[in-house]
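INFO batch 0412 | record 1 of 1 | parsing
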Amino acid sequence: MKGKNFNTDKKLLIPCVYLKDGRLVSGFKDDTVISDEPADFAADLVRRGADRLIIFDLSGGDREHEENLTVIREITANIDIPVIGAGNINRSEDVKKLKYAGCSSVALNMAKESNIELTEEVSKRFGRESITACADIEEQILDNAELIRGFVGDVILLNDVITDAYKDLRVFCVLNGADHEKAKAILSNECVAGISGDYVNHYPASLHELKRKFEDEGFGMNIWRHKFAFEEFKTGSDGLVPVVVQDEETDKVLMVAYMNREAYERTEETGIMTYYSRSRGKLWVKGETSGHYQYVRELYGDCDMDTILARVKQIGNACHTGSYSCFFNEIVDRDRKTKNPARVFEEVLSVILDRKENPKEGSYTNYLFEKGLDKILKKVGEEATEIVIAAKNPDKEEVKYEISDLLYHIMVLMAECGLDWNDITGELSKR
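INFO prediction complete | emitting tokens
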């Protein structure tokens, strides 16, 4: 089973949340607080079946805007679905900050002339799929039709009136005060790729149930389907199948757990790893209490169909001890050199971090940390210049040496700034 996809032929359910003063409130004109823990609230929406999430930033000034950006960054780091950032966008820098906070797309309000003027610029800078147009009346689409069709990926419509103005566009319709029949009528439009608003936010059951309801009514929904039924696995006498859990980004084995039929089916439904706890005798959603969820990326059965390999996006640490992986009790570690790029970068950064925490006399790395940020930045600049000079020469060995020097100093800078390779690769994967 592969991770969730977002094909245009699938209708999506997209909750929207409203962020004010670092908390989630009921709506644009209703400051009633619904959650003081936005990241946990968002994770619960994913577990309930959200396909995407729209976040409206209702901040009233620059300081509150920066605080809300921190909250948005926490939300995007805690979930595994695309997030659309909207609200309080006045310049290109605001779009950049939302992208840096982890938003897959940024919504520009077509009622604001300044946002219309920004559209082409930010589309060329960040890519068309990174820009969404937000409109509440048809004229905002008609008046900017050429711009939107040329430089915008999606449209968020803040009403429920679909006309020919939206033809050939991909529309997410925000439904407030609608019933199920109205929702069906909206989804029946070919241009509507998903619905949002109060109808989705306040649906009394899980969104998984709503998807199944729409599917029964003839709509293609973003629902996973296992390729193998649980009965096709060879279970132990206790009816359980062992699951080896691996981090999809680092390839490290994180833990081993067990699934019964219900856990297997719940994992299929939610996209979050769910196990059967033998000690407690009940289902166990990984991360339910710690927030360290495991979002499914891939599931495989082995050759004998008696073990499952789960490749996941791990939030936080996997082990109850606080360790990233449960496998930390070294039995044998044969000294060897690896050329695996990811492992080399991780190992070198690990040594640098150890030097930072446990200074070693005579260490050049410690010398850099002692001299501070300005010295580290100076060395990064010098090494970058050395690469430019080396690249002008025909000797690739010299270029290789200088690039290695630059990468080392960049890792020292990463350690000084509190970054690791997951931060960097995570950012690169969004581009």
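INFO post-check: The first strand starts at residue 12 and ends at 14.
INFO record closed
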